[in-house]
Specification:
It contains two helices and four strands. By secondary structure, the chain is α+β, with helices and mostly antiparallel strands. It has one domain: Alpha-Beta Plaits, CATH 3.30.70.100.
């Protein structure tokens, strides 16, 4: 499964890297690609192991707002 989320609150490319690292630590997330310039994250994941709500929750815990794009 693939999803794209709009992410508000990133201040730099390091923010994007931190989001990718945290999401890719989740069981079931195969790949995360966050763009600071576009304020979006594209995630490929196994919907049997992780739900899109969990992706948004993790991003929110990091201090960013994530919504479906």
């Amino acid at each position: 499964m693939k999803t794209t989320l709009k992410v508000n609150g990133m201040h730099c490319a390091s923010c994007a890297l931190a989001i990718d690292e945290r999401l890719e630590d989740l069981p079931g997330v195969e790949q995360s690609a966050t763009s600071y310039r576009r304020a979006r994250v594209r995630v490929r994941y196994d919907e049997q192991r992780v739900h899109s709500d969990e992706l948004r929750r993790v991003i929110a815990e990091m201090g960013y707002d994530a919504r479906p794009d």
